[in-house]
Structures are given as C-alpha cells and as structure tokens.
Amino acid sequence: MISRFAPSTTGEAHPGTLLSALLVWLDARAQGGRVLLRLEDLDTTRVRATWAEQLREACAWLGLGWDELVVQSARGAAHEAALDALAAAGRLYPCACSRAARSGGRRAPDGGWAYENTCRDRPLPPGGWRASAEALRARLDDGPLAIVDLGGLDLSQAPARDMGDPIVRRRDGVVAYQLAVVVDDAAAGITDVVRGRDIAPSTATQIALQRLLGLPTPRYRHHLLLLEPAALPAPGALPAAPGALPAAPPKLAKLHGSLPFSQLRARHGAAELCGLLAYAAGVIDRPAPCAPADLVGGFTWARVRTRDRVARWDPDRGLVFDDD
Fold this sequence. Notes:
The protein is an alpha/beta fold. Helices cover 30% and strands 15% of the residues. It has 2 domains: 2-66 and 225-235 and 244-321, HUPs (Rossmann fold, 3-Layer(aba) Sandwich); 76-183 and 199-207, Rossmann fold.
C-alpha cells in the first residue's frame, strides 16, 4: 500500500490542508503502508517557494513524517512523455475556447461549466504539440465509467460528456493538473488515493486518462471538508428559486486566506491542534492533545465523519467547529 499527500503550494497551509494530511498519513500508517509528500508546484503564476517550505514545516511540526518527498516541477520529462504518448495515439488537439465562452452553458459535476468538445476535430500544428500556442486537450473515450470509491461515494460519470475533454497543457505551457496527477501517481506506484471530496468530480476524468496511457488505477477515497462559516445560510435568507442550482458551500481554501498556519500555530500547540483536527474528523470523541502516532492504533474509516464541518475562529478559543 502506497499513498500520497499532494497539496498545491499556492498559499499558506490551513486547517483543511492539515486535516487532509493527517487523514492520509493515518490511513497509510494504520495499514503498514508507505506515504509520500508530493508538492504540486506546476502553477508558476501562483506558487511560491516559501509556501512549499512552510507546508513541509507545518507537517513536521504537527508530527507527520513522510517516506519520500516528490517535487512535481522536477518531473517535466515524464509529463512531456505522456503528452508525446497522447499525441502518438491521436488524442491531443489544440483548443481555442476560453473559459468565458463556456460560461452560461451546461453545468459539470464539479459545479463549473462543461466543455462541449468544440475543438475536437482540430489537428495539431505541423510542429506537433510543442509548436502549439493554444491550450491542449485530450480526447477521451465516449461512454460511461461506473466508479464507487472506498467510502461508497458514487463517482460514476461519462467524463467526456459530463465534464468535457480535459485540458492537459495550458496555453501558458504549464502541464495541467489532470494529466500531471495521473502520471505522477503511476510513477510513484500509488495504490491508494485519499483526498478531499471537492476533488471527487475529477476522478472519472483521471481514470479515463489512465486508461488512455495504459496506467494502473489506484483505489480512491474522498473525505469530509472543512467549510467556512459563510457556507451557512444567513438567518431569514430566501430559498433558492425553483430549478436553481444549489450554491456549493466553499471549503476552507487557500484562495480565501482561511485561518493560515501562522495564525493557528500562534494560538495552538502542535498536540492541541492535532487533537482538534482529529476531533473534527471524528477520529476521537472529544478534543484532547495528542500526536498523530497516538492515533494510529485506533484509526478506522468507520469512525471518520462523512458530513462536512464548519470551522471558525473564536477570539478566546481559537479554532472551533460548528457543533462545539
């Protein structure tokens, strides 16, 4: 059993980051498996070396040790080889469609706008994919994929229709997440992927890419999220209009600057924060200082909550949760 914690290094670690790290680590250690840390730093417009270093520091401070460190930006040759393989199979095509052009169209399972595979018939330029100044997409097989993750979450999709063919290299030349994660998981021999439920809609697309590239498919599990207080409806708020799509509550995300690690560490010790996160997930029944190693013996997914939790900052108590 080989697992990985694979955060993007586009902001400070926050409670949601550390909760995911803890659950990934506990799952691997409870099964006697290996677990690696992969720093996903391909988005050159947003990543910072200081955030990557802080993330490693935050994990070590909390008591999480990794069997291997992988830096995704060092794996460019493997990503290019995958693009070569897709091109050789006739699966790559340039896409001139903008995100704005998809706005207002058909909703995808992740809440965004589905891509209608508009450019599928466009050929690569004479110089091949490296000569393209446009984004590149991979033409997936049509048809449904029946997928249920280890927690019983139904992830079944027809990804080519429901999401649309994925971008595999962006217009600025950056290899896109969907391709990089598939290639890197296979290279590391990942057998189990544990990650937040917000990534669940991407699973079918990633499995479709694995099949195009002849790569193995790991087992998947998607855990609860920590949500911001803004996710709660305001008192007296009017219900959504009939037929309207429900608003997806925002997770505690780096983009929102939610409770950064520097604020957490200034208020809580490592053992205290570990206990709070374990309690939030249902691993323990009440908040109590502990180290991750203390939790391994009793860890089971049967105890872990399936419902998301709202986290907030209390001036007197620090990090608290919705039903505290």
